[in-house]
Amino acid sequence: MHIPDSLQDLANSEVVQFLKRPKTVVRIFAGVFSLIVFSSLLTDGYQNKTDSSQLHCVLNSNNVACSFAVGAGLLALLSCLAFLALDAHESHIADSRFRTAFQLLDFILAVLWAGAWFLGFCFLTNQWKLSPPKQFLLGSSSAKAAITFSFFSIPLWVFQAYLALQDLRHDAPVPYKRSMDEGGVVLTTLSPPSATSPINTPTTGPNNMSYASSALSPYLTSAKVPRLAMMPDN
Fold this sequence. Notes:
Strand content: under 5%
Domain MARVEL: 18-169
Strand order of the largest sheet: 1-2
Transmembrane segments: 24-42, 62-86, 107-126, 146-165
Shape: elongated
Number of strands: 2
Membrane topology: Multi-pass membrane protein
Main location: membrane
Radius of gyration: 40 Å
Helix content: 55-70%
Largest sheet: 2 strands, antiparallel
Order of helices and strands: HHHEEHHHHH
Subcellular location: Membrane
C-alpha cells in the first residue's frame, strides 16, 4: 500500500478523489440516514405501556409501522453499501454493456427508494399523529428521529436518481457507429474510378471492339463523306 509523502499527494490519491465525488457523498448520507431510521426504532421503537408489560410499537401500537421502518432502513443501508463497492470498481469495468446495466439498475433503485421513503414518511407521520399522548414512557424521541430522517432521505434518493441518469446519458453507447463506418467504407469502395484507373483502359484486339469507341455516342462520330463518281461523257 502506497503511503503519500505529503498532504498534496494525499489530496490527489484515488481514495480521496473517490470520496469527493457527488455520487459517493450522496450514497454515504443516504446510508447514514437509513441507519438512523432502523436503529432508532429497533432499539427504542418497542415499549411497554404504563399499565402493561407487553411491548408495542410506539407508533400508535402499530407493529407494521415499526417493522416497515426497520426493514426499509436496513435494506436501504445494504443497497448503499453494495453500490459503493461497485462504484469503487467502476473504473476497472471494461465491458460497456455491464456498466450500462449497472447504471440503469442504480437509476431504477434510486427512484424506487425515493418513492418508498415518501410513502414511509407519510405512513409513519400518520401513525404518530394517531398515537395517544403519554401512552409510552420512552420512545417518542426515536419515533421523531425515524420520521425526520425518513423525510430527509427522499431528496437524497431523488438526487441520486438524477446523478445515475446523468451517468447513463453520458456513457450511452452508439449502436449504429459501426454500421455507419461500414457504410462509409462501402461508399468509398463504390465511388467512381479515377481517370488513371485500369478500368478505363480500352481493351483492343483483332476481334474485339474498343471500350472507348463503344462508349461514344453515335451522334458524336464523324459522318462519312459521300464519294463523287465521274460520269463518262456521251
